[in-house]
Amino acid sequence: MFSDVDGEHMEAALALAELARLIAPPNPWVGCVLVRDGQVVGEGHTLEPGSAHAEVNALAAAGAAARGATAYTTLEPCSHHGRTPPCVDALVGAGVSRVVTAIFDPDPRVSGNGVARLRDAGVAVEHGLMAQEVRRQLRPYLHQRSTGRAFALLKAAASLDGRTAAADGTSRWITGPDARRDAHRLRAESGAVLVGAGTALADRPSLTVRHGQARPPRPPLRVLLDSSGRVPASGALFDRSLAPTLVFTSARSSATARHAWEAAGAEVFVAPERDAGVDLAVVLRALAERGVLQVLVEGGAFVHGSFLRSGYADGLALYVGNAVLGASGAPLFAGFEVAGMDRAPRWRVSGAERMHDDGRVDSEPAAAAPPRE
Ligand code: AOF
Ligand code: ZN
Q1: Alpha carbon of 347 to those of 1, 35, 266, 316: distances in Å?
Q2: Contact at 8 Å (CB) between 115 and 92?
Q3: Of 137, 163, 179, which residue constitutes the final position of a domain?
Q4: Are 320 and 354 in contact, with CB atoms under 8 Å apart?
Q5: Atom of ligand 1 nearest to the CA of 44
Q6: Is 74 helix (H, G, I), strand (E, B) or coil?
Q7: Per-residue confidence (pLDDT) for residue 372, from 0 to 100
Q8: What digits encode the pLDDT tens for the residues 57-67?
Q9: What is the pTM (predicted TM-score) of this model?
Q10: How far apart are the CA of 78 and the centre of ligand 2, in A?
Q11: With 0-12 CB in 10 A as exposed, 13-18 as middle and 19+ as buried, what is 291?
Q12: Which residue in 99, 106, 221, 361 is deepest, having the highest Cβ count within 10 Å?
């Protein structure tokens, strides 16, 4: 059904979509290529929310040349009136005769209707080209729309022997500048960056995007998990001029702590408790409701451990530094025991990259274990 030429054009659409990864959320980053008589006549990708979608941008570039063309789109074109009119109407109106798509849009307003409406209008639609690649590219969007929870990407840095600090507690710097820049790219690609109270107290992090090329149009939301109200409402994390801050706490924190956070301009969310912390399902749903597709969970070890234990860890980006920190070094994940090999959660490595003397290993849960409700 699909030719090599089809594959090349879809690959180009995928590359265009990638250009929109930082600007499109909470919308999906989509690419579209229009081809007539073997010539590319228009290209487009998604712009900021509220602006034209990929297909409309490609049609604008093609003008009259779109008539009789084939459109390659990474995501099924939308069929609904959202902030912008339906892309299917624009494609039909411009006289596009064939549409090649990779995956359906899980958004309930679309979800197969886009393809159906194109076919009803007499457009030839071929579906499923490079579906696996696009599913990987759009994983946070697909996860958030289908589960109603933000995609939790755990980020950690460890020594070669899996330690996050030496015996004396020192941890700067486990990895070099290239890996640290890469970690800021992960922040830029995330709608929110999350830490626990322990890390907030020990590191006084600002959780902003500072290094590297990637800059999102809006800084990621800073998220603090502090069920007992230990973190004072001061320092960079509560500097409103840097980025907004959202604190998840529980009934255990004092009214004084909550008022102080609010007075500093943070949003405070009192969530139910679970496993001696706040209920992560509630956290991830609240983030999704605020338009967050991916939350970068930066730690520390107990927060990472609780995401793993509860089944809400959706991905892991592990930076591996070149030091060896020894048996008394701090472990990567805490509050997390495994009785035997047969009980070990299994993850699969989905990617790896070398960065100077360090590396990043990407993993995902091997079997999609259902989260423990
Ligand atoms: C497309 N092409 O490039 C994108 C689509 O509020 P709106 O009008 O911008 O619609 C947003 C929804 O449109 C979003 O939730 C998703 O279902 C779809 N995104 N569709 O045809 C695109 N970004
Ligand atoms: Zn659209």
Answers
A1: 34, 40, 36, 9
A2: no
A3: 137
A4: no
A5: 3
A6: strand
A7: 54
A8: 999 999 999 99
A9: 0.95
A10: 4
A11: middle
A12: 99
Residues 145-158 have pLDDT tens digits of 999 999 999 999 99
Nearest CA to ligand 1 atom 18: 78
**More confident: 23 or 370:** 23
Identity of the amino acid at 184: H
Q: Which ligand is nearest to the CA of 44?
A: 1
Find the DSSP H helices in the chain: 4-18, 54-62, 87-93, 113-120, 131-137, 139-147, 177-188, 197-203, 255-263, 280-289, 301-310
242-257 confidence digits (pLDDT tens): 999 999 999 999 999 9
Q: Are residues 258 and 300 in the same domain?
A: yes
Domain shared by 183 and 282, yes or no: yes
Chain segment 212-222, per-residue pLDDT in tens: 888 899 999 99
Starting at the earlier edge strand, list the strands of the sheet with 39-45: 39-45, 31-36, 70-75, 98-103, 124-127
Q: Does residue 325 lie within any of the structural domains?
A: yes
Judge whether residue 371 has pLDDT over 80: no
The single-letter code of the amino acid at 240 is: R
Q: Total structural domains in the chain?
A: 2
What does the chain come to in residues? 373
Q: How far is the CA of 55 from the centre of ligand 2 (A)?
A: 7
Confidence (pLDDT) at 172 = 86
CB of 92 closer than 8 Å to CB of 79:
no
- Euclidean distance between CA atoms 108 and 264, whole angstroms: 38
Range of the domain at 185: 149-365
